[in-house]
């Protein structure tokens, strides 16, 4: 199923050029990549920006971060950079989120960054390729280094003379790691604990209406494995790929949650009510009565889309978790009290939430093709979900799902779902991942083609070359076009797009450059071209006239 440009504009929901600059959804939506501060722009500046054309980059397989005309970048922070006397920036940065310390000053604030996983070749100097039985050669020291390099970072950054820099030794600077004690926001202990050790597999995230960070534990089974149940409901342990459970006996059930972090002191809590699975992100919306709706997807083949609706203002504990039946357009309650089929399988609501994937399937939830990022359109209020791909169903290029809640109510229990098959050679990109809307409602999108499949003649991704960042304008003669504006270094993906409050900077992670390197003498990437030539994940700040133009595109075109 393919759609032309005119259909894509309709799918996105084009509005009149006179739409207000800061629509209601920007104000109400708790988790939003969209800029929140507006400022006047002069007629002279509008005229200048109008002359700037949006030029599409060609696909690239070069080992560099390449930007189109009107954009430039500088590195804000990279793996190993000092935060203070104790801490350094972690590995494989993913989701980013910026909160200004003063809402009237968009140039000084706290940057949260996820650290999803590690490459032991770089982090702990362990190369599994050197051993016939690599698991027999792992050490406690290696595991400890890896545990430190996942989780998240809070770091204060300031923009001076157009350059964002880390404020080293600022008291806000801190690390959250796989060894940080974290409370469970739940009344019932899980595997005997109300406080667990660490967070890891931190992929995407969000921000709460009360300005705390949200980070999501995605592929949690990579580190401590998973508990699996057979047809007789008897449990067994599936080993992890990283083998941490051989050194630390932490139950898999302590991971796979949505985690909230207070930016002021780093205190964290895991929200059990939102269910346990491979959370890609968690996008929050605050209703008029201050209750909260949270959308989150399970980033795995044939898994599901979820929605939590709180029953009390500002709560991520009291409420009901639902899972989507996108065929019939209904939200199905993962509620042990009201669902006999769940009572027959599980002992209580806690077990339903711990085994949310099984519960969702018992209720008849729709199997989806890796639901990843979720964003709310600031113009129409519709919910967009990137479905990256599903190779088991021969869906190599993915799609974008649009959810229209009944009567536009986010606490509605019925909705309309539609799919635009955006991925594929005809439309110019493959495997949509992170999404972001700018101030004018243009859609930005990163891609997530696997490093093992990119630039391979025998693979379906050859025409696209390296992963990229795209923008789809909502207005102008380019409306509906899918325009490549940034290409990533070799093996890397671009993740975590987040606009500064004034819309003049786009923060972006460059994750896992050089990931396919077989050893330190055969590096596939050397980005960001440090003296040691070791590839390093980093957060960059993208600025330039094109960023400003896109954020004011509705005014420019009116």
Description:
The strands form 8 sheets. A 6-stranded mixed β-sheet has the order 9-8-15-14-11-10, with no helix packed on it. A 5-stranded antiparallel β-sheet has the order 1-30-29-28-27, with no helix packed on it. Strands 3, 4, 5, 6 and 7 form a 5-stranded antiparallel β-sheet that branches. It has about 550 residues and is mainly beta. The protein is built from 11 helices and 33 strands.
Q: State the distance separating the first and last CA atoms.
A: 33 Å
Main sheet properties: 6 strands, mixed
**Total helical segments:** 11
Structural class of the secondary structure composition?
A: mainly beta
Question: Low-confidence parts, pLDDT < 50 over ≥5 residues?
Answer: 1-11, 13-31
In short:
By secondary structure, this protein is mostly beta strands. Helix content is about 10%, strand content about 30%.
Helix-strand blueprint:
Blueprint: H1 5-12, H2 24-28, H3 43-50, E1 66-67, E2 72-78, E3 93-102, E4 105-115, H4 120-123, H5 140-148, E5 151-160, E6 163-166, E7 174-176, E8 181-184, E9 195-197, E10 202-207, E11 213-217, H6 221-224, E12 226-229, E13 235-238, E14 258-261, E15 268-271, E16 283-286, E17 292-297, E18 301-303, E19 305-310, E20 319-325, E21 330-333, H7 340-343, H8 349-354, H9 356-363, E22 368-369, E23 371-376, E24 383-387, E25 399-405, E26 415-420, E27 432-437, E28 443-447, E29 468-472, E30 483-487, E31 493-499, E32 506-511, E33 538-543, H10 545-551, H11 553-557
Parallel strand pairs: 8-15
Antiparallel strand pairs: 1-30, 2-33, 3-4, 4-5, 5-6, 5-7, 8-9, 10-11, 11-14, 12-13, 14-15, 16-17, 17-19, 18-22, 19-20, 20-21, 23-24, 24-25, 25-26, 27-28, 28-29, 29-30, 31-32, 32-33
